[in-house]
Amino acid sequence: MTETDLVVKVVEAIANADGVDQEELDPLYTYIDPGMLEGLSGREKGEWSFTFQYADHQVTITQGEQIFVDGELYTSGKVTW
User: Fold this and answer.
1) What is the pTM of this model?
2) pLDDT of 12
């Protein structure tokens, strides 16, 4: 996944969890520097996860670039409930 893809996927995951279009969300930079997320893309050394708060959601990104919103895995355009 490219740097920009990871940021886009995070926004998609949050929008999906809220059941809204991405354009209806507050900008991601209101809660976290998108550059920080871009820096995570492609990191392969060791196992890691990164968690941050977006509005009332807890978002976690793992070393395998899996995205969890409130503990639920986001995959292919949807959060798996």
Assistant:
1) 0.84
2) 94
